[in-house]
């Protein structure tokens, strides 16, 4: 038996059930919210918590037992609010540690670190390990995985520093990693190179947002290096339409890669990056239910077997967290 930490405490990985491997409960810029509470969408604490409870209950009612939430520093992680939601919604939520940036690191790290003005050990590693071992910010909630990002900007000094710190925290704790990548710049391969150089076990890495691409050659190369492909933006059809997202999973499964794919939407109950109504109009299917309602039936129809669905939704997440 092996346990994974969730917001409600440790859970046997064998009881995680159907898992959506990349969803956010809330994505909020706290400083913006405190100073411009109505831009670009108004924030109402009680209403947003109630809304998240409803959305997670609907998700659970469709047979999803666990969501994996890679909301870290840069995306507004605030665990007490997640605990308040989880008290009312019966679903496993797995929390993360790490830093989300496409370029610069937070100023709190600029001058503190190896070779910097204040020449100390890498504080990021220490903070990530603390979240994993002791819990996050005085809550009893422990992070169960690590998160970093690399986007079109590539391996900037800030992105590389976070990625190496994530790799080092993985080596120290054995916890798995999710990387936000941009497949169109093949940044999954860059992340694999940097993480492998830090001694990371690439079979414990999800190369997130791989599903934004239809480049089968690229996807096979990432998977052949051992990592999971995050086919994790279903519903974000502005970036790649439904049909192409589905067909890519179908073809990769046909080629024997079901064991290397995980599914999700990268949706959020609330995200303050967009005007809520405009988002709803632009991407109406970008929510926690699209995979259950539309994607799974489409995959079945196109020849993906029940066994392959179980592999992607149950077995791969269990193996990743074990
Ligand atoms: Zn995300």
From TrEMBL:
The keyword Hydrolase applies. The keyword Hydrolase applies. The modification N6-carboxylysine is found at residue 147. InterPro entries: Metal_Hydrolase, Phosphotriesterase. PROSITE patterns: PHOSPHOTRIESTERASE_2 (PS51347). Signal peptide: none annotated. Keywords: Hydrolase, Metal-binding. Belongs to the metallo-dependent hydrolases superfamily. Phosphotriesterase family. This is Phosphotriesterase-related protein. The lineage of its organism: Bacteria, Bacillati, Actinomycetota, Actinomycetes, Mycobacteriales.
